[in-house]
Design goal:
The chain is elongated and about 65 Å long. Strands 1-2 form a two-stranded antiparallel ribbon. The protein has 90 residues and is an alpha+beta fold.
């Protein structure tokens, strides 16, 4: 998980007392890269494919699936509002 906002400012900028709210809002956006390994055998039938479907002969063993994307994570913002966490973003 990577918070991309710190890339666009210096450490002094993000630690300035007047930027606390901006730092909290910027910490909401996160980028992730994930690798899932699906153990065992997968076939087209596992996905409900029947005779005549284009990918019926699909078959893999111990498949590796990569994914990436952005997440909007409000947990820190809501935690600050509720007083449950301190501002420890970045």
């Amino acid at each position: 998980m990577l918070k991309p906002a710190p890339i666009f400012g210096s450490k002094d900028f993000w630690e300035a007392p007047g930027n606390r709210k901006l730092r909290t809002v910027a910490s909401v956006f996160k980028f992730y890269i994930r690798n899932n390994i699906i153990h065992g055998d997968l076939t087209g039938a596992d996905f409900g494919l029947r005779e005549g479907n284009a990918n019926l002969n699909f078959a893999v063993r111990h498949d590796r699936v990569w994914s990436s994307g952005f997440i909007i994570d409000l947990s820190e913002v809501l935690g600050l509002k509720a007083g449950l966490v301190r501002s420890r973003t970045f």
